[in-house]
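Q: What does the assembled structure look like for these inputs?
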Amino acid sequence: MFKVHAEVKLSHTDAAGLLFFAEHFKFAHSAYETFMKSIDCSLGRIIRDSDFLLPIVHAEADYKGGLCLGDEFDIFLKSEVGDSSFVLSYSFKDSDGNVSAEIKTVHVSVNKETKKKIPLSEKLRKGLLTIA
Amino acid sequence: MFKVHAEVKLSHTDAAGLLFFAEHFKFAHSAYETFMKSIDCSLGRIIRDSDFLLPIVHAEADYKGGLCLGDEFDIFLKSEVGDSSFVLSYSFKDSDGNVSAEIKTVHVSVNKETKKKIPLSEKLRKGLLTIA
Amino acid sequence: MFKVHAEVKLSHTDAAGLLFFAEHFKFAHSAYETFMKSIDCSLGRIIRDSDFLLPIVHAEADYKGGLCLGDEFDIFLKSEVGDSSFVLSYSFKDSDGNVSAEIKTVHVSVNKETKKKIPLSEKLRKGLLTIA
Amino acid sequence: MFKVHAEVKLSHTDAAGLLFFAEHFKFAHSAYETFMKSIDCSLGRIIRDSDFLLPIVHAEADYKGGLCLGDEFDIFLKSEVGDSSFVLSYSFKDSDGNVSAEIKTVHVSVNKETKKKIPLSEKLRKGLLTIA
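A:
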């Protein structure tokens, strides 16, 4: 489990007064990036220097309660690790511990040139397993 | 079927050079808003003046191919209509007719005060059925 | 003068019910991209294939009235053209013809490798002069 | 002076590989919101409960250097306080201490109903003066 703290800012809200549904995916991805940096697999380095990319092939969200401007929340991150892919689950919990959203993203490891599936790098695989 | 034309602008792209995954949901929602206006159920009016709201309780996306800066595409919108909820499916097709993403959003009709499920308004129901 | 039509969608609004101030810059940039495509200088091609870039070195906005969810507006685009830079002015007018915002962006032509100022390409210069 | 630490995430970048110019304004506003919370004048409370609003009437940015995916930076916030308005200046400094952007936002205190200028609330005025 990996935890990221976050807060709803004005730019994330909409005219209905709530965190806009698509912004949840941005928060999830930001938590993913923070996690990747923590296991020394930063996305910046992967995009610039590696021979693979990790495109998202599927994303989904279940919304269970609205977050409002100024609300603080935690994102809890867990992984399921495959050979050439992994799934990340993100649980958004408000300050009372209630789940406001559950998000999933599915990532595939592909060769940067051929775009063909390739096995996860060993370092990434080990890092992901720490939150399995 | 309802069709909206769109284009990938710089603000939608990321450092990997592609339409950022979460931006697909914004495009889908924008197409939904255009559709709702076309059936005289604009979201602005619903949020300001109606006694119901239509929160999204689930959203998902399958990504099949990347869209790049400047790419034009069409979003094809279809509905499945329930008693107090509806599902919208959005198919993103690039200018060669290839599907680059499939998105779904599930909306529930709730009373603005009580937040309890209520039947879809008759006007909305009829409008949604035109793209079922 | 170049004109782009636009509409305030839910993702552009904030909890105060208005078009979020930073979103104006995205709309302005989107209008700039549409204009650039119209003069056959699309940003996608510049970023991928040219030997220059056109970074924004200054941007500013004066806000004169709020735009709400669902409001349609026009963006009127004008240029001032220098040797190695240009200024774009964007006037946002609501459907009553009232100016809701005035935006400016200043762009400099730089060599992609050295990042040094270089003269505007002749094609770009001619295109920009059509809206001077 | 008030300092906020931030990091460039993938959603903030564009196909040119840099922090998109309009995203600087979102980071600035987010820093403003963090500051307002620190002086017990959170925007959420102002928008929901107060009799005034603080619309931005002017915003500007000078860009001096690009921030890339994964770059960490600090935003330094300073105020100039008037009777019914205030100016916030935000200096973005990268991890080497180089200024990458300078931003300004001008806020006016207006009555929520009449939209007429009114003096800054005493609490807000005092809080703003702590970073003058």
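Chain C touches chain A at residues 10-11, 13-18, 20, 22, 68-69 (CB under 8 Å).
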